[in-house]
Design brief:
This protein is α+β, with helices and mostly antiparallel strands. It is built from 7 helices and 10 strands. It starts with a helix and ends in an 8-residue tail after the last helix.
């Protein structure tokens, strides 16, 4: 009888471990949908644009709840920024493919830009992105883009205009299929957000831009052009945003 109870306990323990591993894997997968660098392209003024993928910089966006929890504990309201800087330093120590970081709240309050080491191949960067995405504090990781010798970050926002006369029901149906929603906090009504846990960002944008009911859809790009204070910090560490 004791032997049967022991075996039953072992089986339950194994099932629990399997469930925990599956849950952890599902959580990691939910942070960012898989994508390949070949899928990074978009339309601009009716022309297909295939940007160069930067071999030097990555964008890491952190989960808002960790930033808000930090601000709730602190009284000065800057705890979220302190959390990101501390986390960035820890990431560099634990990932030998990372060389330095740039955090500038004037560009993005919830994101940090990481410089990768020289000589990385695309498969190295892809593997690094997957590793960073497993961090519980990370919402998603994106590569950066090089256009006209300037480095740009993309997040989960894009701008879109519907063709005149498109029924509201059709708009909502197309947005659901693309896992996109209107950005309620945007000043302009034509700004939308992609659920990058459900679909790769550029796949969603291009699904919409190629639909006959859409006049145009283009990613919201932000040039990584640090403020004077951030420029000084980056210069002291030997970095240059313009490096691709």
């Amino acid at each position: 009888m004791k032997h049967l109870i022991k075996n039953h306990f072992v089986i339950l323990l194994l099932l629990l471990l399997v469930a925990l591993q599956a849950g952890t894997a599902s959580l990691a997968a939910a942070r960012s949908a898989p994508y390949s660098f070949d899928s990074v392209w978009f339309y601009r003024d009716g022309t297909r644009v295939v940007p160069e993928i930067s071999s030097r910089w990555l964008t890491v966006v952190f989960e808002p709840r960790y930033l808000s929890d930090a601000d709730d504990i602190a009284s000065d309201g800057d705890a979220g920024a302190a959390f990101i800087r501390k986390k960035a330093r820890a990431m560099i120590q634990s990932h030998n493919l990372l060389d330095d970081y740039l955090y500038d709240p004037n560009i993005a309050e919830d994101a940090c830009f990481f410089r990768m080491r020289d000589g990385l191949k695309p498969e190295d960067a892809s593997r690094l992105i997957n590793q960073l995405n497993r961090d519980a504090t990370v919402k998603y990781v994106h590569p950066t883009l090089v256009l006209d010798s300037k480095t740009f970050a993309f997040f989960n926002a894009f701008e879109m205009e519907w063709k005149t006369g498109t029924p509201q029901a059709e708009r909502e149906s197309l947005l659901r299929a693309s896992h996109a929603v209107p950005d309620e906090e945007a000043e302009k009504e034509n700004r939308y957000l992609v659920d990058v846990a459900a679909i790769p960002f550029f796949k969603a944008v291009n699904l919409l831009s190629q639909d006959i009911r859409v006049l145009r859809a283009a990613p919201y790009l932000v040039e990584i052009k640090p403020s004077i204070r951030a420029r000084m910090s980056l210069f002291m560490s030997g970095g240059n945003i313009g490096d691709s």
